[in-house]
Specification:
This protein has a four-stranded mixed beta sheet, with helices on one face. Strand 1, helix 1 and strand 2 form a beta-alpha-beta unit. It is globular. The protein has one domain: Glutaredoxin. The chain is α+β, with helices and mostly antiparallel strands. The protein has three helices and four strands; from the N terminus they run E-H-E-H-E-E-H.
Length: 75
């Protein structure tokens, strides 16, 4: 199973859109975990002005992205 992290923020409408995309792609091969940008200092330092961000292994996908971009990241 592939596990991705979605870095989000409170009251972030773009984060909701990203969550919807991941929910549509989620199946028995893909699972995502939502992490608040304030949950880890590294997230805040690196992504404070870039959320939503998808992290997979050592890769990152910054907004804007779509389903095809997410699928490409997971290859």
């Amino acid at each position: 199973m592939k596990e991705v992290i979605l870095v989000t923020g409170k009251d972030c409408h773009l984060c909701e859109q990203a969550k919807d995309l991941l929910t549509e792609l989620q199946d028995d091969q893909l699972m995502f975990i939502e992490k608040d940008i304030y949950s880890k200092r590294d997230y805040l330092d690196k992504y404070w002005d870039k959320i939503p961000v998808i992290l997979f292994k050592d890769l990152e996908l910054l907004w804007p992205f779509n389903k095809d971009n997410i699928k490409e990241l997971l290859l």
